[in-house]
Amino acid sequence: MREIRELTEQELAQYVDITANAYPGMKIDNAEKKEHFRERITKVAQDPGIHYYGLFADGEMQGVMRFHDFTMKLLSVKTLVGGLGGVAVDLLHKKEKVARDMVQYFLQHYHDQGACLTALYPFRHDFYRQMGFGYGSQMNQYSIKPDSLPRGSSKANVVKLTADDKDEFVACYERLLARTNGLMEKQDASLNGLFESPTAHVMGYKQDGKVRGYMIFTFRANRTDQFLDHDIIVREFVYDDREAMLELLTFLHTQADQVNRIVFVTQDEQFYFLLQDPRNGTGNMLPSVWHESNTQGVGLMYRVIDMPRLFAVLAEHDFGGQTCHVRLALTDSFMPENAGEYGLGFVNGRYHPLSATDQPDITISMDVAEFSSLITGAIGFKQLYHYGLADISDTAWLDTVHRLFWTENKPLCLTSF
After folding, report:
1. Is the distance from CB of 242 to CB of 284 less than 8 angstroms?
2. What's the pLDDT at 224?
3. Which residue in 54, 109, 139, 201 is a FRET match for 295, CA 20 to 30 A apart?
4. Does position 413 have pLDDT exceeding 80, yes or no?
5. How far, CA to CA in Å, does 191 sit from each of 126, 217, 231, 262?
6. Cβ neighbourhood burial of 110 (10 Å; 0-12, 13-18, 19+)
């Protein structure tokens, strides 16, 4: 008989063993490293929004995972979103549906907690897509020469931020969150780890004591035989306005004497317009003359777990100013209770549930994976229809349905978990 429950502090050492074996690339490969990792996650577990769980069979721990209680900006509203990380299965119990059972528990847990949406970074996209998770936005990685970035007239307001600036740092991020679909509120554990890190550098644009922009970066050595060849890896770049952005970029521009390339990790699809030379140094070219500028990755996936609650959360959201009655036929093989037909009414963009006597103008149908991508703004309805991933009973309504779910900004996520 399997049991899934939150782990005690004493059980975290076994959590470390399972994690170390499941992810050998983490190099938790000796007693000292395991103890250091155990101490770190014990500290992380003190965050009230982070929980460590294990799956047990006859008292034996066979799998582990980590839950995050996130507050996320979904389109125009904030809502609880469950985050799943650190899924690991004991080597002796692979292919025994341990991970499947843990994911099922995770989804039910956050359904019971009142969430309508969950999110995770997949180790294999196909595994989680079969469970109803849909793709989010892509991540881009640029590798550019420092002098390819804009250089303004000054970087006088750029300073190194410390733990004393944490409140202003968070306030700057919160201003971005207020206007950005997909962002998640920062958790205490990640903030504390950031300012305690010996390798992370947090540079801020500070004016009149207020942090109006910041970036987080690390150095990466390119060679082991000498100490002069480094890159800067920019993992987070946040700003209130163009003045803050330009001074931060000017700071990076002026690092050319010490730094070979600036590696930007960004979900900004138009980032290359900033650059004098967007080529990434590989020399690769796509036919006929398309120079390689960046690499892309598909990471974060989303899953709707409660349809009625989802639309209750979005009651004040403007669905494109549209007026129509829609029947949504949703398939969901992993959570059958989430599947079914939903009557969605919209008047000037405001949602209301259709009554039994209301007649729909149109019926649309899709799987929960595609709907999860649609409702978060990762893809538009027209694209889903053209790819054969969604259907509509009358294509005369295609533009209307597309405008219902269209959002100006795809979901942005700066949170690793």
Report:
1. no
2. 77
3. 201
4. yes
5. 32, 15, 24, 24
6. buried
